[in-house]
């Protein structure tokens, strides 16, 4: 069984939920923290979470002969350095989209052009129900569309790497970042390839959204 398989209903539910969230949100309210959004998404998210949990349990039972994910310092440092390099490269090439609203809209319109996803949250964000709903939907959507995804636990470091919007100079929402495929044919990024390998190794031990520390 492929490592990226999820229940078809779960992926479809994520697509419908993201589409609905995009339609209801306004651009000036990227995190969509309204009670209406929470009520409309919550029942679907609970059902989706149950499906994904059941699937994860089956997946764990079916993994045989897999090597454990390396946890040594060098392995994690390599992923950390690769993520930093990928963010800088994507920003320079104009292939980076930041913001929960902006990312959800793009994933709904053009998921095939998304190469990588980063979800970021600080400790205080754990109590943000609307944000956690979006994270659940984005994770399911990435899995369904074969998009590698990692989490980061330091928004300040992420903001320092990516910086403000080049167009307006205004601060951006860094809770979700998408790396897009550039227009050049045959483009390959060594940092992206390294992160793809890291995510694949993580999935082999049932860690679907690994956390990657950013370098100091």
Automatic annotation (TrEMBL):
Pfam families, sorted: Ribosomal_L7Ae
Region forming the signal peptide: none
Record keywords: Apoptosis, Developmental protein, Differentiation
SUPFAM superfamilies, per database record: L30e-like
Spans through the membrane: none
Ranges of residues in domain Ribosomal protein eL8/eL30/eS12/Gadd45: 82-163
GO CC aspect terms: cytoplasm; nucleus
A single GO BP: regulation of cell cycle
InterPro entries: GADD45 (IPR024824), Ribosomal_eL30-like_sf (IPR029064), Ribosomal_eL8/eL30/eS12/Gad45 (IPR004038)
Family affiliation: Belongs to the GADD45 family.
Record's subunit section: Undergoes concentration-dependent homodimerization, which is required for growth inhibititory activity and enhances interaction with PCNA. Interacts with GADD45GIP1. Interacts with PCNA.
Function field: Involved in the regulation of growth and apoptosis. Mediates activation of stress-responsive MTK1/MEKK4 MAPKKK.
Protein name, entry field: Growth arrest and DNA damage-inducible protein GADD45 gamma
